[in-house]
Design brief:
4-stranded mixed β-sheet, globular, alpha+beta, Immunoglobulin-like, 5-stranded mixed β-sheet
Length: 116
């Protein structure tokens, strides 16, 4: 009985390792685009992404205050605390322009994603 129990744990361990490795490969295959918030502005204000492709948008808030990334067209809303970052998955999107804004600084924090 001891042999069967140990075999179960060894097989389980290697399955966990295999799934972890494969899972991280899928995440890294998704294209990554970076968007920074500085002085209540988005940099770059326009990001071009491939159409019909799921992408990761890394939003880095360099300000000390929080900002909310919001887009009605992308159906996304995410608060990014000051001096922190987050990943937002977007798409796949058909070709077009998708505006976004910072809800806490709407007069200055404006941008758009262009899918081509």
């Amino acid at each position: 009985m001891l042999f069967k129990k140990n075999t179960f744990y060894v097989v389980g361990y290697w399955l966990f390792v295999l799934i972890s490795v494969l899972g991280s490969g899928f995440a890294s295959a998704t294209p990554l685009f970076k968007l920074e918030i500085k002085n209540h502005l988005f940099y770059p204000a326009e990001i071009v992404i491939p159409a019909n492709t799921k992408v990761r948008l890394m939003v880095i808030n360099r300000d000390d205050t929080p900002e909310e990334f919001e887009s009605y067209e992308l159906n996304r809303e995410k608060v990014i605390l000051g001096n922190s970052q987050t990943i937002i998955f977007i798409g796949p999107l058909p070709s077009g322009e998708y505006p976004f804004f910072g809800e806490f600084n709407i007069s200055t924090a404006q941008g758009k994603i262009i899918a081509r």
